[in-house]
Design brief:
The protein contains 12 helices and 18 strands. The protein has about 475 residues and is of the alpha/beta class. Helix 6 packs parallel to helix 9. The longest helix has about 30 residues.
Length: about 475
């Protein structure tokens, strides 16, 4: 009996995509992602290990939670993997696919670098791969922007945040078609490559990394026109939570780098409602732009008849505060920064669970994909496969998800978020009850000492030495 060829994997990474899709209940116009979620499984409680791009992607790639401060930096992959000789254990789950007969192709921002190569924002493109052993092919078309990092911060006229010395707005409604921004070029490159992979016949892993909705919120004007003024909802929690130290938050520094923005964000005052709606319109427009690009990829899978043999994964590398807790950005240990989009559709699974409420972490994706593709794991990782949850055959729920940042560990259970900060600023313990306070408006740790005491041993299990060497008397 002929053995069935392993399934292909199309893995799509989307920068800064929180649960802001129509299928999650948002006003976002995302018909293609909605349809994929309805065909496959939508994860309602997926949490990242770190609310910053490089660190989150390091955890995804390795299946390991952060275990030292370097793992919380955007340079985590560069520090821990780049430039190293090939070892016994794979450097990433993509490397593991490659070692097991897959042809691996990377297009766009899969790891932290915009194009998978190591160089600074304003430096010429290098030929040094961020993941030295994972890719058979690493591709990118920067178009008129010349380099990956220029493309990452691209404006429609060919300039970028660096070339304009940050004298730019944090949004743009470009009078251009889809190819007028780099993500459209990434789509075209991926479409061409799918045709080649179809002819090749070998099982493939193709990673496609889209930039939007990362700042700046730049998208063709036709996607901005999908949303209108007062119909755009404001944050349900635009205030600083009660009973916390401001060190738990930040002053939206990444957002404020865009010097020509009409207003600056700060903890001392919210931006105006009109400006908040303008920014949210840009975020939503960026999502609709990416949704259209993904629609083209899914349509091509069907045209090539690859759709019945290809697992599709949509992964947001972390969430984003859209004025929530008075923040515009990520980089906190609150729900808005840690919860992100995850959709998995596998044609080889019948009756996929449509909405999965089980808590899962980004580190769990590595072993899940290996199980779905029949590839054994011979080394230990922190992630646990949730493959059986995709069909509802496993009712066991994961207890917690761990996340790390700002000298703190945050643990999400079904009911609570418990966060412990290793710092001098008090209080250092925060507890939020999501059954009554899903927007995390009030820290109730001081009045629920028994709950904290009961949960703390489980939280401490997540500290595998990462904060043992940190000086806690600094912010």
């Amino acid at each position: 009996m002929q053995q069935k060829k392993p399934p292909n994997v199309l893995f799509i990474a989307i920068d800064d995509l929180r649960n802001e899709l129509g299928v999650y209940g948002s006003i976002a116009k995302s018909p293609n992602l909605n349809a994929l979620a309805n065909k496959g499984s939508l994860f309602m409680n997926h949490y990242v290990q770190a609310p910053t791009c490089g660190a989150s992607r390091y955890a995804l790639m390795t299946g390991q939670r952060p275990s030292k401060p370097e793992h919380l930096k955007n340079s985590a992959i560069e520090l821990e993997i780049s430039g190293k000789a090939e070892g016994e254990n794979p450097e990433s789950f993509i490397h593991h696919f490659r070692r097991n007969g897959y042809h691996t192709v990377g297009i766009g921002k899969i790891t932290h670098s915009a194009d998978g190569l190591l160089y600074g924002y304003e430096e010429p493109v290098s030929d040094i791969r961020e993941l030295p052993h994972s890719w058979d092919e690493l591709l990118f078309n920067p178009g008129k922007w010349v380099t990956g990092w220029n493309a990452f911060f691209a404006y429609a006229n060919g300039e970028n945040r660096q070339s304009l010395k940050k004298q730019v707005k944090p949004y743009e409604a470009g009078e251009v078609d889809d190819e007028g921004y780099p993500d459209g070029l990434t789509t075209n490159l991926a479409l061409s490559k799918l045709k080649e992979l179809k002819k090749k016949g070998q099982p493939f892993f193709m990673g496609v990394g889209f930039f939007k909705p990362h700042l700046p919120f730049n998208a063709p004007k036709k996607y901005w026109n999908l949303y209108h003024g007062d119909s755009i909802p404001l944050s349900e929690n635009p205030r600083i939570p009660e009973n916390i130290h401001l060190q738990s938050l930040h002053e939206s520094g990444e957002f404020n780098q865009y010097a020509l923005g009409e207003e600056k964000a700060s903890l001392s005052a919210s931006v105006s409602d009109d400006y908040a709606r303008k920014l949210r319109q840009g975020y939503l427009a960026s999502i609709s732009y990416i949704d259209a690009q993904i629609g083209k990829l899914l349509e091509e899978l069907e045209t090539l008849r690859l759709d019945q043999d290809t697992i599709v994964v949509i992964w947001g590398d972390h969430g984003w505060h859209l004025g929530d807790q008075r923040i515009w950005g990520k980089h906190t240990l609150f729900e808005n920064a840690l919860k992100s989009t995850l959709i998995i559709s596998s044609p080889r699974l019948e009756n996929q669970s449509k909405k999965i409420h089980t808590i899962v972490e980004s580190v769990d994706i590595y072993p899940t994909l290996m199980e779905l593709c029949g590839i054994p794991l011979s080394h230990n990782i922190d992630g646990e496969s949730f493959a059986q949850n995709l069909t509802g055959s496993n009712t066991k729920k994961k207890a917690v998800a761990y996340s790390y940042f700002k000298n703190g560990i945050s643990m999400r259970t079904d009911q609570y978020r418990l966060t412990k900060y290793f710092r001098s600023g008090q209080p250092t313990i925060e507890l939020y009850d999501h059954s009554i306070d899903p927007n995390e408006t009030k820290n109730i740790a001081s009045e629920n000492t028994k709950v904290v005491a009961d949960l703390m041993p489980l939280l401490e299990k997540g500290n595998s030495g990462i904060y043992n060497s940190i000086e806690y008397n600094s912010p």
